[in-house]
Amino acid sequence: MSKAFEELDFQKTPLGDLILRRRQVPSLANLDVFEVKLGEAFLMSSLFHEVEVALANLGLRELQPGLWDVVVGGLGLGYTAAAALKHEAVASLLVVDALEPVIGWHQNGLVPLGATLSGDPRCRFVLGDFFALAQSSAGFDPESAGRRFHAVLLDIDHSPKNLLHPRHGRFYSLEGLRWLAGHLLPGGVFALWSDDPPEDEFLALLSGVFAKVKVEVVTFENPLLGCESASTVYVASL
Fold first, then answer.
1. What is the tens place of the pLDDT at every residue in 65-89?
2. Structural domain count, the chain
């Protein structure tokens, strides 16, 4: 790509206008940066993906040795899913996303990790509402109702209190987390990305459902602002 700025896709969705764009950053040697916007909010950027990778690594490191079946909630630019697939113990990966265009970006090679995910036989995309599936008896796999998993890694909302849609709120409750835990195998792990600092209230909710709860603050350099930024990863184990 030679253009300094390019809108790769624009779609109207129930959550708002969805935009995928690529731009070059002159201060970073014209590095190509891929960005996703939903309405007026920036959802993600390829320039900052350390926490998405950490979400996979911190969650999966809590599992016992063996072969793992994993769910990723939220596809985005694919960094959490790609990091999970780097673990040889991952036998299968379901990536659940409610926005069909996002899955299409990966299947059609519009984003850098598209071929990596689409070409891995362990990885399967599921078009669906993660939160509705989490609170259903059928669960996440439309081909195997009631299937349970070793780990669920969630990266959709900005935080448990800063939601993309109000209907997601029920998930971040004691009842919602119990539904989620019901889709995990014994010893299973739930890990969640948050753009906010650790919240004591949410940690208490996790502790009411899971046997072990950890919180990690992940820091990363922000070359555009010339400072260090931070996000949170919650990790809860049965």
1. 999 999 999 999 999 999 999 999 9
2. 1
